[in-house]
Amino acid sequence: MMPDPIPAATLILMREGPHADALPEILMVERGAALAFLGGAMVFPGGRVDPGDYSLTPADHSDPEDAAGRVAAIRETIEEVGLGVGLSPSPDATTLAGLRMTMAAGMPFADALAAHGLAIDTRALTPFARWCPEHVPVRRFDARFYLASIAREASSPAIDGAETVGACWMTARDALTQADSGAIRIIFPTRRTLERLALYRDFRSATADARAWPIRRIIPFQVERDGVPFLCIPDDLGYPITAEPVASAKRG
């Protein structure tokens, strides 16, 4: 029997390229090699939804689970790479560093925000997808993916050195090229996401496309085509590639 999925959230953080004609860049983080889940893989910032995240959800939000996911994505991005997206007012570097230190010392996120005069602005995040693979035998996540942008001058990551041991900005196309060459390791949901992100010329087109497709759980499934097993996802959720041979699909 598959375990119940753990609520989680992921932030796809985008910034403008270095010049006007450049493609947008995506923040990718490298998980510590010794971690039991996705050790050594390149992923987007994110993690579990904590109980405390629900206390920061707007009372009038139509979907409390979505709201808590947005809070978790914001919190995890601060913890892992020291970047503050979805905070109001937008903090300067000193305030953001102080917030992160307070959180690292064990203060609950809600209390740390209040201590630094900050609040959550969940409107800064746009829902993008929701992945819930069923193949993981021990740890299964129901991960909500969100899009957000950050100014290039405020986008230098500072890794936590624990779960996250590296972080870099690259275009989605470059990330796929590096994965194909073996320079980085990405798993099936990350590859499908990068293929979709590679279609966008800028953040505006990314958010417009995200709003054009429904958000529902993506549970990859296996089918056989001409005797070859493929790992597939639905073809009505905006992904340009929806199948990959099981033999090449990296699932964990």
Q: In words, what does this structure look like?
A:
With 252 residues, this protein is an alpha+beta fold. The protein has one domain (6-217): Nucleoside Triphosphate Pyrophosphohydrolase (Alpha-Beta Complex). It is 27% helix and 25% strand. The chain is built from six helices and 13 strands. The strands form three sheets. Strands 1, 2, 3, 4, 7, 8, 9 and 10 form an eight-stranded mixed β-sheet that branches. A three-stranded antiparallel β-sheet has the order 11-12-13, with no helix packed on it. It has a two-stranded antiparallel ribbon with strand order 5-6. Strand 11 (221-225) and strand 12 (228-232) form a beta hairpin. It is globular and about 60 Å long. The mean pLDDT is 92.
Helix-strand layout with pairing:
Elements: E1 6-15, E2 25-31, E3 42-43, E4 46-48, H1 64-81, E5 87-88, H2 93-104, H3 109-115, E6 119-120, E7 126-131, E8 141-149, E9 164-170, H4 172-181, H5 188-197, H6 203-212, E10 217-218, E11 221-225, E12 228-232, E13 243-245
